[in-house]
What we know:
Blueprint: E1 2-7, H1 12-15, H2 18-26, E2 31-35, H3 36-45, E3 54-56, E4 65-70, H4 72-82, E5 89-93, H5 108-116, E6 120-132, E7 143-144, E8 147-151, E9 159-165, E10 168-175, E11 177-181, H6 189-192, E12 204-210, E13 220-223, E14 228-233, E15 238-243, E16 246-251, E17 255-270, H7 275-283, H8 289-298
Parallel strand pairs: 1-2, 1-4, 2-3, 4-5
Antiparallel strand pairs: 6-7, 6-17, 8-11, 8-15, 9-10, 9-14, 11-12, 12-13, 14-17, 15-16
Amino acid sequence: MRFAIFGNTYQAQKAFHTRTLLKALESRDAEIFIARDFYEFLVSELKLNIKATGLFDENNFDADMVICIGGDGTFLKAANRVGRKGIPILGINTGRLGFLADVSPEEIESTIDDIYQQHYTIEEKSVIQLVCEDNKILQTSPYALNEIAVLKRDSSSMITIHTSINGENLITYQADGLILATPTGSTAYSLSVGGPILVPQLNAITITPVAPHSLNVRPVVIRDDWEITLDIESRNHSFLVAIDGRNETLKDSNILTIRKADYMIKVVKRADQSFFKTLRGKMMWGIDSRDAMHCVSTE
């Protein structure tokens, strides 16, 4: 099999388990192609002697599977570079929570075994796209696997976000920002500001305000084939747009449109994984801390 490897290039400890991954792949005579920035990081920071089939830059790669090692941020960057290639992505989590990169370092060997035995599933994740009136204005990729957020730039004044769905007025938000999230992103930034959790199989987008001025404003869930239009006003005539964490400053004269992209991202899941199992394991879903305290006190 041919693998393309991405990884965290900022923290050496998060890349340490790459050694285990590479040994597991080498033992199976895999073709190993590594992102050049990650390769240089491994050689300079970890002093690894790496035997790679080849290196690649940006989106210039092809593979049977992509493996990224790091946290969910690393996974999102890899997904952006995979784009429309349709290559399934496996995430090895050396970060904190790990909803997307959900294979633990201790599971690397067994997971590679499962891949070669075809004992895994692939989930297709929807992607959303940001379109500006001036298509040349965005400096980064307009596609998001998790969320697109518009946010105020300063610490004092809110922004005004005139929001329409399929051309019909929804509401004008007075808030610190607005998050539009896919089901994949519903457990990320959106959840932290009170948005709902969506199961991966839903064809939906959540619209969640950040610190709204009105207490009766609540998150809304809509179909993902509907089009959202945002007309934003701010005191300093600019605002931030964050696309899976890639930030840009835009002028408030720009009308933004968010719609479902014309491709999906394929995510590799181990056969024994499920969304609800991940919720329970990663978020302590349904765990009563009083029970844990009682167990400690009686031992």
